[in-house]
Specification:
The chain is of the alpha+beta class and 109 residues long. It contains 4 helices and 4 strands. It has a single domain (4-107), classed as YaeB-like fold, CATH 3.30.2310.20. A hairpin with a 2-residue loop joins strand 2 (67-71) and strand 3 (74-81).
Length: 109
């Protein structure tokens, strides 16, 4: 059975920020479009076997079942729910950023 993939508002803001940074700061609209397409393709692939990636090893995310996987220089954080067959994409972060700090700030919002 296929899962439904939902992108949270925060993850949508992350994707928009990634696109804008590459397009307007690095001045490469084509690379921004390609990066966004790769991210979206990999995110949508979670509709099948979303548990194939590992859990994020930092608490409280590990206990909550948050999983993550890399796409190029970015890391996609998501929460699969077997009962509802829904995958919620919660963040898309630059891999060299302080992801744990950003995730903690997100939880405290």
């Amino acid at each position: 059975m296929s899962y439904q993939v939902n992108i949270t508002d925060e993850a949508a803001r992350d994707l928009r920020a990634i696109f804008e940074y590459i397009a307007f700061e690095l001045l490469s609209v084509e690379n921004a479009e390609n990066q966004l397409n790769r991210l979206q393709k990999e995110i949508q692939s979670l509709d099948e076997m979303p548990e194939r990636y590992r859990r994020h090893e930092v608490e409280p995310w590990y206990s909550l079942g948050v999983q993550r996987f890399p796409v190029d220089n970015y890391c996609v954080f998501y929460l699969p729910n077997q009962e509802t067959q829904v995958v919620d994409i919660i963040r898309v972060l630059y891999g060299r950023s302080d992801m744990d700090k950003t995730m903690t700030e997100f939880a405290n919002e």
